[in-house]
Write a structure and sequence with these properties.
Largest sheet: none
Structural class: mainly alpha
Radius of gyration: 17 Å
Strand content: under 5%
Shape: globular
Length: 127
């Protein structure tokens, strides 16, 4: 089961990468000239963290909110609206390099948010 989960996630990452690469290559309106691996991984990590940090759905409620699901998601994860949030994690000297553009480079300012740390803080007995 773990292997299957990994394949699904890798497949999702591959679809995101392929979609962005095709968009950049075929859209004359984009200001971006080429694909950036580290920046893409960064945003995938932040969105995934936000998705996994959403409160559980209340079985008592109908599951409907006044907002559409995407607006609700952004309301609970407003940091995703900050296009420069990467500066909290990366210096320009690290992220704006050919290496970071071509392959995943880890942040130099602070680690990316992750579910393991979040869960350990929420439940110290798991740490």
């Amino acid at each position: 089961m773990v292997g299957t989960t990994f394949l699904i996630k890798a497949s999702g990452k591959d679809k995101i990468f392929e979609g962005l690469e095709a968009y950049i290559a075929n859209n004359s309106n984009t200001r971006v000239r080429s694909f950036h691996v580290s920046m893409t991984y960064f945003w995938i990590q932040l969105v995934h963290f936000g998705m996994r940090s959403m409160p559980p759905k209340d079985p008592e409620s109908s599951g409907h909110t006044e907002l559409d699901p995407f607006a609700y998601f952004l309301l609970l994860n407003p940091y995703l609206l900050d296009g420069m949030i990467w500066e909290n994690y990366y210096s320009k000297d690290v992220l704006m390099t050919p290496t970071a553009k071509a392959e995943m480079v880890l942040p130099d300012k602070k680690p990316l948010p992750n579910l393991v740390s979040r869960d350990a803080i929420a439940n110290p007995l798991l740490a």
